[in-house]
Amino acid sequence: MRPVRIARNLCAASGKDKANPRKRERIPSATLREAACLPPISSIPVRIRARQTCPLPGTGRRRGVEFTPLLPDKARQRVATLSLVSQTGNPGAARYVHSPEHKPGNREQQDQIVSEQDPLVIFTPSGKRGRFPVGTPVLTAARQLGVDLDSVCGGRGICSKCQVAPAFGEFSKHGVTVAKDALSEWNAVEARYDEKRGLKPGRRLGCQATIQSDIVIDVPPESQVHRQVVRKAATERVIEMDPATRLVLVDVTEPDMHDPSGDLQRLQAALHAAWQVDLGELPLALLSKLQPVLRKGNWQVTCAIFQPAEGKAQLLDLWPGYFEGPLYGLAIDLGSTTMAAHLCDLANGRVLASSGLMNPQIRFGEDLMSRVSYAMMNPGGDAEMTAAVREALNQLAEEIAKEAEIDPKLIVETVFVCNPVMHHLLLGIDPVELGQAPFALATSDSLSLFASELGLDAIHPQARSYILPCIAGHVGADAAAVALSEAPGEQDDLTLVIDVGTNAEILLGNRSRVLACSSPTGPAFEGAQISSGQRAAPGAIERIEIDPETKDPRFRVIGCDLWSDDPGFEAATAVTGITGICGSGIIEAVAEMRMTGLLDASGLIGSAEQTGTVRCEPDGRTHSYLVHDGSADGGPRITVTQGDIRAIQLAKSALYAGARLLMDEMAVDTVDRIVLAGAFGAHISPKHAMVLGMIPDAPLKAVTSAGNAAGTGARIALLNRASRKEIETVVRQITKVETAIEPRFQEHFVAANALPHASDPFPNLSALVPLPDLSFNTGGGDGTEGGRRRRRRRG
Ligand code: FES
């Protein structure tokens, strides 16, 4: 028996008293009772005032009567549908469908009564299905089934976020045949949208198209709120879109002499009714903007709502009428040497631009401890460093917005990951406690604040900032971001994650346990403290190979895919020139020098006589290896000096010692997987890293690169609210190992000074790359004399 919905438009005429149009008219209870007793006819919406309770006695499921909200034409019209099922016939044939997402006041997720004869609607790719009465909008069906279909305008046919692609024909998999007229005809709203903005062929607006018969409807990725964004890197990572800030369109009730509420209160009520948003306090700057915006938009406004994981939502901005956006967010990896940012579209997660700047705090000290001591020795030094980094962050925001050709004032969110010292200096907290045991943080919890509190005035004045939690006094929010990005605690394999930077973050773990430490590698891996070093930019040498016979190098520079001995290289690099060596280039250069016998295991560069190449030229009491001489054309002479080798040795020893300390703690000598992360982690060759002894010995195929894992962690936290909660939980479960007070760290550091290592075996490396067993130390200690070689056992 088909259930029958009976209704009458009980709001006679306009529902208003003609003598006093503002006076609200109650629908007589008798009229409603009468409606319940009417014979089955059809379904007609019943409009009543929202504040009026349904006067029917015994309203509810038992009586087969439902009183549910309806999506109105205009939000300010409080309307509701009274759906009645006939008490005659067989009520068992009717099925009551309740959306699990239904909340009181959500007008789009209404309860309905359907029968087996109602059209079947199947959504793909989710596979969710259900029956809906003829005439139900696709958006409403999607909402009731919990299908992820976007909407900013709440179904007014303005935003086009609800686009769907109906499919027609025979679908044996679903057991349905979809007729050409399974959806209502193209309506005027769709036609107008198509004319103005263009709809892709085959697309319909989900809020306009209504269901007429069985239908299969595809929700394309761009119409999904929680669409998944795949990170383009060596290890793919899926980020589910669920940003804290989104745009919503609402209709606000006009002021009424009989309802003396403020505009803000009516906006709050509208947001609650339409989007279940509970708005917190409004900053004065926005409050003063509210009235003109509401009136300019004829009581329709688009709100940028920041919804934290817990607590009340915040209004970041509002625009009259429909504002399409987009809004943007910045994910910032604030490192000791460089600061890197990704500018993301908060609607779809797309990275519009990535940019970096050198951290200007370098002038106060190249590593973290020298910055802490600058703050200790110079009253007001911490404030100086805070001002420097904040100024650079504003510059970075402006530059990245310029690169992406967007207004920086549309950047409404920032997420920061940084080490503890940078964390404190960014916040304007003196880092002095981090320079002495027990290395107490001012706070280890995550922070959510206004970006303006961090001095970020280049972006939106109400923009929010989220700073990931720190793990410990020397293991910061950057390590937490790496844990979020690489998730070692979710791996079966024992995984070592090394985020290479001025301060390396190292994580070791699997499902049973995760350990973390940080290690002071210094800025050498980032091209600083290297005689010909530079940051990774066009013109920088990033790859080097040295011929084992001739000892001549060939190289590639950033911005050109050709090798230096390829035809056309000179022309291809004419604009950028060959300007220096970046971090990945110096790692390959040193490793190649070791592999080709230009460098011994202790890290000494041989003379021309010892090595057989004039490229090893005297440089004071030591030697340098000439990579490229551009002086004839006014370019630089690019060399690798003995000082460069020592800087790399110090950096790699610190890295290895940190990893080894965690392995001791875990009581293992080998790991299953090594993930190299860091701003240039994706560019480091695993083979060369192992020749240097940067990382423990492992099969090469077990060593992968993850790119800027800390930056990716920041991006995940920017685009997915739940991940913030997740990492706040995960950091509490990580065991911290403090390298600064661990005596074994020093032992491991000294042993790791050799290339690749003084005592630890490297069987996988030996099988792959037999390293020359030689020593250039002639006893004079300067490595400049003679060509005497002696055999030496390599560790
Ligand atoms: S929901 Fe905005 S156009 Fe359909």
Q: How much strand content do the residues show?
A: 15-25%
Kindly report the spatial arrangement of strands forming the biggest sheet.
19-18-17-20-22-21
Cα end-to-end separation:
86 Å
Instruction: Give the assembly state of these chains.
Output: single chain
Rg over alpha carbons: 33 Å
Class by helix and strand content? Answer: alpha+beta
**How many distinct domains?**
6
Summarize the structure.
The chain has 795 residues and is an alpha+beta fold. Helix content is 25%, strand content 21%. The strands form 10 sheets. It has a 6-stranded mixed sheet with strand order 19-18-17-20-22-21, sandwiched between helices. It has a 6-stranded mixed sheet with strand order 33-32-23-24-25-34, sandwiched between helices.
Topology:
Layout: H1 29-37, E1 65-69, E2 80-84, E3 95-97, E4 112-114, E5 120-124, E6 129-131, H2 138-145, E7 163-167, E8 169-171, E9 176-178, H3 188-196, E10 204-205, E11 215-218, E12 228-231, E13 237-240, E14 245-251, H4 263-275, H5 284-296, E15 300-306, E16 314-320, E17 328-334, E18 338-345, E19 351-358, H6 368-377, H7 381-404, E20 411-418, H8 420-427, E21 447-450, E22 464-467, H9 477-486, E23 495-499, E24 503-509, E25 514-520, E26 540-546, E27 553-557, H10 569-572, E28 580-581, H11 583-595, H12 608-611, E29 616-619, E30 622-629, E31 637-640, H13 642-665, E32 673-677, H14 686-692, E33 703-707, H15 709-719, H16 721-733, E34 735-736, H17 743-751, H18 763-768
Parallel strand pairs: 5-11, 17-20, 20-22, 23-32, 25-34, 26-28, 32-33
Antiparallel strand pairs: 1-2, 3-4, 5-6, 7-10, 7-11, 8-9, 12-13, 14-15, 15-16, 17-18, 18-19, 21-22, 23-24, 24-25, 26-27, 29-30, 30-31
